[in-house]
Amino acid sequence: MRALLIDDERLARNELRRLLENFPKVEVIGEAANADEGVKLIEELQPDLLFLDIQMPGKNGFELLQSIDGKAPEVIFTTAYDEYALKAFEFNALDYLLKPVDLNRLTEAINRVEENHQPLPDTPLGENNKMLGENDQVFVKDGEKCWFVKLGKVRLFESMGNYVRLYFDDQKPLVLKSLNSLEDRLDPNTFFRANRKHIINLNWIDKIEPWFSGGLLVTLQGGDKIEISRRQAIRFKDLMSL
């Protein structure tokens, strides 16, 4: 696992790097002292894992994650403050470590990362390369709930950090997979990448409106409103034209 350390405190980065020497599978490939540096390194180095502080000068850790364009790495927050724990898990953090980081807690966090790197055959995004179309049925598991759903019923896929939320009927389960890898599996004649956060089912479009900066705003059956970015709007018009 290729890891990036993002923390404005140099001593905290040094201590975490020292602790990570206990884990041969974790390679520290870079460090950043603030969110702007962190975003640049994420784009350049494409790490698998972030050790991310929350309180930093300028943008905080949450704002850094919101500014990532494309696939987001897995995240372990490292912070001196425990009041951000709930919000951290809203960003799908794998763990939340309080400073000073304890080796035993760090071991638990690394184990959790390794577990998430195991194949997940019970998601719609298994390890095979079969293209998935609207008539394919997939098994979805979120916590204790399970569904066997035809993909044609899924109107929207939404990136949620390291997860993707599926919208069908009145259900919104999460699966542990990136939107980019999901896009590679879905039939592009039915499922369209509207922007960096959303894939829409073209069969569920109810209304299309012009939007800002040359983009489009689509309303799906059920009321979801999704912006198609300017770049994707050009592809959308080509795809949907005679």
TrEMBL record:
Sites where 4-aspartylphosphate occurs are at: D53
Which residue ranges does the record assign to the Response regulatory domain?
2-114
> Keywords, A to Z?
DNA-binding, Phosphoprotein
User: Per its UniProt record, what InterPro entries does this chain match?
Assistant: CheY-like_superfamily, LytR-like, LytTR_DNA-bd_dom, Sig_transdc_resp-reg_receiver
- Which residue numbers delimit the HTH LytTR-type domain? 140-242
Task: Tell me which positions the record assigns to the signal sequence.
Answer: none
Q: Tell me where on the tree of life, at the top rank, the source sits.
A: Bacteria
Query: Is the keyword DNA-binding in the record?
Result: yes
Give the protein's recorded name.
LytTR family DNA-binding domain-containing protein
